[in-house]
């Protein structure tokens, strides 16, 4: 059965190439124990797109703001650096998740899903998340610490995505098999930004 907002048009433009996310974050329909039982990696995806409602909830669970006071997030961050940015590769382009404005900010108008990994399923899956560490937000730490904390924080976020997908009947898998230099160039990343991991999300292949 569809959730209340899933009959809306999948992606609504609010400004040229910007995508407004849905602020109505309703509870998951499954207990934590059942979610943990259902959590798994999948590598077979339908090409069916996610609604803006489901995509909004996915990103909020991943690393959204969950407390009205301040800007505290759904995943912990070492020294509260909040150095991880989530880039979202869709058929309509590449975006960066802005949890404060609840929008997907445009980065590229091109469909770069197939560039986010070497696996054969990434180009057809509806959503590929790219976790990018902005190391300049961690300037007080050594380079070794920066890489460690970035990997640790990405793990927290990607697990949130796994749990959401388990509760919502979606398929997901994290992927380290990525040509990071080529993808960083394609995305226009700066020298202080480092791709940590990618994660594919979609409906299971029928």
Automatic annotation (TrEMBL):
Transmembrane segments: none annotated. Pfam families: Nitroreductase. InterPro entries: Bacteriocin_Proc_Enz (IPR052544), Nitroreductase (IPR029479), Nitroreductase-like (IPR000415). Residues 36-203 form the Nitroreductase domain. GO terms for molecular function: oxidoreductase activity. SUPFAM superfamilies: FMN-dependent nitroreductase-like. This is SagB/ThcOx family dehydrogenase. The lineage of its organism: Bacteria, Pseudomonadati, Pseudomonadota, Betaproteobacteria, Burkholderiales.
């Amino acid at each position: 059965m569809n959730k209340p907002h899933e009959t809306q048009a999948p992606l609504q433009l609010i400004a040229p190439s910007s995508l407004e996310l849905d602020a109505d974050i309703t509870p998951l329909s499954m207990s934590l124990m059942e979610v943990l039982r259902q959590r798994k990696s999948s590598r077979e995806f339908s090409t069916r797109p996610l609604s803006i409602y489901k995509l909004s909830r996915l990103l909020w669970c991943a690393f959204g703001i969950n407390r009205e006071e301040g800007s505290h997030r759904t995943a912990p961050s070492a020294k509260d650096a909040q150095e991880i940015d989530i880039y979202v590769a869709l058929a309509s382009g590449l975006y960066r998740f802005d949890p404060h404005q609840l929008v997907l900010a445009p980065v590229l108008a091109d469909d770069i899903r197939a560039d986010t990994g070497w696996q054969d399923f990434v180009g057809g899956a509806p959503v590929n998340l790219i976790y990018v560490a902005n190391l300049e937000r961690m300037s007080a730490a050594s380079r070794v610490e920066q890489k460690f904390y970035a990997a640790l924080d990405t793990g927290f976020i990607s697990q949130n995505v796994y749990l959401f997908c388990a509760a919502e009947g979606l398929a997901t898998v994290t992927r380290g098999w990525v040509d990071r230099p080529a993808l960083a160039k394609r995305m226009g990343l700066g020298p202080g930004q480092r791709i940590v991991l990618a994660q594919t999300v979609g409906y299971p292949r029928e």
